[in-house]
Amino acid sequence: MFAATALLYPCVLAVLCIGAGLLLDRACGARLPAVLLASVGAAVLIAVSQLLTFVAFLAPATPYALALVGVGGALLCHSRLREIAANLRRRPALALAPALVYALALAPVLIAGRPSFSSYMALADSAVHIMGADYLLHHGQSYTHLDLRNSYGQFINNYYNSSYPSGADTLFGGSAELLGLPLIWAFQPFNAFMLATAWGPAWLLARRLGARGAWAVIAAVIAVVPALVYAYELLGSIKEITALSMLLASGCLVTARGSWAARGVRGAIPLAVVLAGGISALGIAFGVWALAAALVLAGALVLELRGGGLAARAASATVALAALVGLIAALPTWSDLSGSLQVAGNIASTSNPGNLHTPLRAVQALGVWLGGSYKLQPAGTSLTITHALIAVAIAAALAGAVATLLARSFALAAWLALVLLAWLVVTRSVTTWASAKTLMLTSPVVVLLAWGGVAAVRRRAPGGVGLTAAALLALALGGGVLVSDAQLYHSSNLAPTARYEELSSLDSRFAGRGPTLFTDFDEYSLYELRRLDVGGPDFVYPPPAVAAAAGGYGNPVRIDAIAPAALRGYPLIVTRRDPTASRPPAAYALAWQGAYYQVWRRRPAAPTALEHRPLAGSAAAQCRAIGSLAGPAAAGHGSSAVLVAAEAQRLVAVDLAKRTLPSGWGRVRAGVAPKRAGRLTVSFQVPSTGIWRLWAQAQMMPTIRLAIDGRAVASIGGELSGNSLVVNTAPPVEVPLAAGRHTLTVSRGGATLAAGDGGAAFLDAVFLTSAATPAAGVLREVHASDWRSLCGRRYEWVELLAR
User: Fold this and answer.
1) In this structure, are 465 and 545 located in the same domain?
2) Mean pLDDT value of segment 463-492
3) 613 near 797, Cβ under 8 Å?
4) Are 689 and 738 within 8 A, CB to CB?
């Protein structure tokens, strides 16, 4: 699966996009530069996927339509394709550079060597796009059959039935479905590919800013991976990354109008398709950048009309055809313009900053941010160096702007100015979340302008001085960006591959048997369990009947807080394997168990408990609580009243809190935070000889090792849950232990270059349970009048039933 998603999938995407670009190029006679074909072709495929999913019964045909357009274009334009291939053999950098961008963007996954994605624990928006892409490919824009009583239906309805932009999603879903790839593993390769398509237009813009040869190649690479863009790519910001390619491509097309205007009115079609692709991907919000391109184009047309170089009829025909193509290519967006405007307005005005603690700073557009997080300001020496590099970048950008004007590249200068003006205007009129997106989309343009300054220094300084000065300036700009990206890479958190594979397997096993109550906090489960009609009390859209079980978004689910009658609507309950959590009510029997999850099925004709009462405290306190429940029951229901109690598992806790910690380790709740290399040894007591299960509750991206009595027993790494507030329990390890005292050693090695080695590192708890305990726990049932026979033990809960 890793090879298919990370290596084969981008190659197929390249064929599809380049083929579609060639087909459009032939249709309009524009003779596009080869490096623009991928981004223009992506816009064509977005239009195709949008139109097909707009008509619900055509949606399943989307993958085949994308293949027909892409492969058909490549075959039909085979002579141009051979010409491009020959040019690439002479100039291999034109192929290697976008491949390098792809590798940089996918570096966490590539170096981990397993299918995954790097937005985990940072932002759950990518879960929505994965789920939405799957839905749109199978059902199109049809939402009448959704079950709005559960989370899956609410998510789809509240996003995609409200004119939420889906252009990137339909291209992503259709292309991945063509290869039969799980969307969850194809998601980051798609984003990395779309970022790589932005290299072509960035290279053309760098050349128009004066860069040549290797300088232009390097400038374009750095321009599409500045720190803020790289951070958003690692977050899985599919709309913004796709829109970025469209934005840069539109800049190339509008500033080179002379090269396609001579082809007649059809020459404007690629620009119209690219702008429509941006609008489909990002929504009406892309209109500010479309307006910038339109104003530059309008200015050029006016000048030509005044100079007599263009007939009014030809100008009108060009504008009319471009408008018609843009209308058709983004038809789903235009068809509900009021809804699209409302979505854009909601995003622009929301007071919810998402995962941003504070607004981003304008200087982050310069591409350098040496803090390891785009959300926080660097500290200490890193802040000083960041400020110094930003000052250098500002000076270079000013030099690039002056050089552009001196070169009389007025169309390019106008487009650059309008893009920067759009950023300033939008930032002043929207709130934190939308402002950050605008800053990210503007960053490559600012960085390109700075590299225009590098080119100006190289051209204008005398002899070797110019080359040396330009090289030093390029080193500062490029080095600052790449070091910033390396820090972001190092602190990324990769999604847990094995756990999602297990979720996928149980989705296949129990497909169609929902609705299903899901008690773990992980919004990617909405995709993995899409055939089970999942509802999660801790999701942003919880099922109303069970919402109180979590008490709010992202909080732990307390299944004991759900009224027995509310559970009747759930034939299945999926829980994490966690001995510290309560077993589901007696009406449910264990149907399946994996390394991470348990599936509980409601027994046929199981009676609904009259009352379900959680128990806590000592055995004596629990006995009194059982008695208070049983007394009225025996009187009210006679011989039919029974009590069912779930025995609590006996835990042997390893106390991590009362030991001196290694240097650099911190404390988190009752556990530890092993932020750097170190070793912690603690002792614990086992009451009896036998096989014990060792459990670790941890949010652990880097690897830690556990040893008992000096013998290695487990390595835990890449074990994360969707929210740091929710306990993440790793699969247990069985170890034979004799009764008595033992020592546990927790160790973390030195820093490595592994993806996420600087990511989450929190060990909340370590404990043991007897392997002899049944997986489904132990239930004890007695007549209500015999309630005293339950005393003397500790229980998770007790239920009152009428048999």
Assistant:
1) no
2) 88
3) yes
4) yes
